[in-house]
Amino acid sequence: MSRHIPTLMRAAVLRDIDHGLEVQEIRTPHPKDGEVLIRVSACGLCHSDLHVLGGAIAFPLPAVVGHEVAGEIVELGPGNDQSGLAVGQRVAGAFLMPCGRCPACAEGRDDLCGPFFDLNRLQGKLYDGTTRLADMDGSPIAMYSMGGLAEYCVIPSTAVAPVPDRIDPVAGAILGCATMTAYGAVRRGADLRHGETVAVVATGGVGSSIIQIARAFGASRIIAVDIAEDKLAAARMLGATDTVNSAEQNVHEVVFSLTGGRGVDVAFEALGRPETWNSALEALRDGGRMVPIGLGAGVQTAEVEINKTVRRSQSIIGSYGARTRQDLPEVVRMAADGQIRYKEIVTRRFSLDQVAEGYDLLRHGEIQGRAVVDMSL
């Protein structure tokens, strides 16, 4: 079953690192077994895309990036009889697309899905070993996740969740990456307990979501750390109890002063840079947990003081995304119930033709919260 679908669609295609994204017409994709096609209403702009666009992370070209989307299902592939999905449903799509069949998925560890990393993240393909995207002449175009910077995209049914009408169809795009990644870090990585104290280092789209989810989980103190005063002001509006400008203040001194000389129970790092790793570790108490979430550009390393980590029983717990099938529906529920003020995180909207401008602003740290491409503009 499907709705009217055009033969061609517009997409932001990366063919050459030096030339950047170009909006072009390519073939409209169609879903295969266990997949759906959605008409995209919006796609978020994420730092992970920047690593591909700048060549810091090797990825096949040509490619379409964009991995946090919202839209409407317009076609169901075969094998969806038990999925509960239907044409006409509004959905959020998760960047982490579990195959549902590998050993990790069988254990419920969608975040460790082997085919997702081996096929999609390395080769730009879905789980039959082919991409759904193609040029006018039929030559393949790689997909970064679902390749969401396009008018239509194919997503495995395991990676979509229906959303109620009260979810904004544009701002709701960030639920499948920024918000779900934050939920995974708080719920799965940190296993945050009521009354614990946290620091959130880097308060962009993911960090802003961590602040809200930590508050919903009952954190007693939430300290936001960033280098931009406008981002720190926004963090306070979203629930941070305290802020630290790490460009002007010593993170360790301020955090320990705020916590009675103890440090925080959990420090989240949401940017993937050595300096933000250090800030998170400097905020941590004895026996505390540091949860890094941000991806570095290419192969980066951060120093960890061995003796301090051992003697003070500190833990470093990496967190990549979340357990999509379990966690995305919960993220949607929290957003629909007002526990996550996702609309306030989206501060800029660009048309598809303006996508290169949006990424350029993101690259230079000039986006507060999250920017999205609004397909209606």
Number of strands: 18
Radius of gyration: 20 Å
The CATH class of the largest domain, by name, is: Alpha Beta
Under CATH, the topology of the largest domain can be stated as Quinone Oxidoreductase, Chain A, domain 1
Main sheet specs? 7 strands, mixed
CATH superfamily membership of the largest domain, which one?
Medium-chain alcohol dehydrogenases, catalytic domain
Name the average pLDDT: 95
- State the helical fraction: 25-40%
How much of the polypeptide forms β-strand, as a percent range? 25-35%
* Low-confidence residue ranges: none
Number of helices: 12
Order of SSEs: EEEHEEEHHEEEEHEHEHEHEHEHEHHEHE
3D structure, described in words:
With 377 residues, this protein is of the alpha/beta class. The chain folds into two domains: 8-176 and 322-374, Medium-chain alcohol dehydrogenases, catalytic domain (Quinone Oxidoreductase, Chain A, domain 1); 180-316, 3-Layer(aba) Sandwich (Rossmann fold). It is built from twelve helices and 18 strands. The strands form four sheets. Strands 3, 5, 6, 9, 10, 17 and 18 form a seven-stranded mixed β-sheet that branches.
